[in-house]
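Moderator note: this is an archived Q&A kept for reference. The question asked for a predicted structure of one protein chain; the sequence and the answer are reproduced below.
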Amino acid sequence: MIFGRSQRGKPPVEPVTLKILVAGGFGVGKTTLVGAVSEIRPLRTEELLTEAGRPVDDVSGVEDKHTTTVAMDFGRITLREDLVLYLFGTPGQERFWFMWDELSEGALGAVVLADTRRLEDCFAAVDYFERRSIPFLVGVNCFEGSARYPAETVRQALDLDAQVPLMMCDARDRESVKELLVGVVQHAMAQAADRRRVVTT
């Protein structure tokens, strides 16, 4: 770049920035997802799990987890020259849910991560976004050693509306996470277009 203009003589593109939330239960992979795809070093607010928190932090199924997000994770990814996503990972434990309202302000949509070993842990996130009419999709994080179920079986177990997308994913894999993010942007845009059609008819 030279004096704010590209070397080809074209003015720089001012990208559209969109806010996406990454939600789900405790230990489902939200911090891993943000870190896998962020083009900047992610901002993390993790603390060590302690004995004092043992009665409220259920680590069954994720016994190797030693830290937890206490505020949020933040990352950024450029999908195209003119489209940048800001990612906000929400805290998973119930005692930090008061922060969700602040984090969801101005969000285009959300990814709800689900773990088939602890599927009930994502019910609260699904309910939250449904109640606030925030577009979301469910990403089933396929952990090693966990049972694999057909997408329709997971959809029925979560009692998802037919229009809510559900995708299998690996929160450690950049390309897999990018597919999720593209999916939630497309879903949010489609819902916005549907609302406009209803208003104009």
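Archived answer notes: The CA atoms of residues 36 and 174 lie 5 Å apart.
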